[in-house]
User: What shape does this take?
Amino acid sequence: MLDWRTSRETKICGVIGDPVEHSMSPLMHNAAFRKLGLDYIYVPFRVKKEDLKETVESLRTLYVRGFNVTIPHKVAIIPFLDRLDSVAEKIGAVNTVVNDGGVLIGYNTDAAGFLKATKEKGVETKGKNIIVLGAGGAARAISFILAQEGANLIIINRTIGKAREQAVKISQIFQREVGTLPLDRENLKKALEKANILINATSVGMSPNANETLVDSELIKPSLVVFDIVYNPFKTRLLREAERAGAQTISGVEMLVWQGASAFEKWTGVEAPVKLMREEVVKDVGKA
Ligand code: NAP
Assistant: This one.
């Protein structure tokens, strides 16, 4: 049951996407606003592809304070914004927008959230051999930020063309080599022999297909760090098997919470209550 009160000055935030019902963000942000007594409310907006331009204009003119952007709008929204911060511009995708008095500024807090999650768990990425599984939207933000941090990257993806495209773009920006491989067991085995960190940035293992994994458990060594950005379930099959193999694991919930915290701080100017936001997500994922 929602215990909610708005006022004459309530500021509105939200998320646009299609579908949008699965988003954890309303839960996380509303709990945070309530906890800190901030007069804000966060709502989900289902927005179809063909309505994106008009919706963005409406959010601007309604002075909605800010919003998150999810599938399928993260790239398509860019032409409708006034400015991008430099990270979002280089990644070519936006997941957070701030409305500064009618001026719309795009950010990519997926990248910042991912990095913060690794640092908070004491995982150093600079100079490490890192496998990024996937070359979709989230993988793109992660590969970019890891290259910026000075990691040695191999992008492994089912559709090799997408991996190559990202590798070329990252190499051009950071003047460093990025390896690519098509996804199969042999390639994974070879790459894992030298890897320090493995990141699953595909949707494989996500509920309701929680029993799927791209990585054979025998390939996971105890010295590996395994980060699965899938956050539902909280512990994916990949993470459970990595834990059993003695590897350090990081759940996608951590990235979700830190990207949310970063957006929250941009909209409110107040430090996000990260612990509470994590508890809200874990409670809800636990229910799924
Ligand atoms: P996306 O752009 O649709 O990319 C999906 C990726 O998964 C692609 O690389 C795709 O490979 C790969 N893939 C899908 N099914 C596969 C299969 N059966 N076998 C091998 N590869 C497969 O999606 P996204 O936005 O990047 O999201 C990916 C996942 O990250 C989702 O589960 C999402 O919920 C999660 N996510 C988490 C956070 C967080 O904060 N924790 C943030 C963003 C996203 P192809 O290129 O070959 O199609």
Q: What stands out?
A: The pocket of NAP is lined by residues 71, 110, 113, 134-139, 157-159, 162, 183, 202-204, 206, 214, 229-231, 252, 255-256, 259 (CB under 6 Å). The chain is about 40% helix and 20% strand. The chain has a mean pLDDT of 95. The CA atoms of residues 129 and 194 lie 7 Å apart.
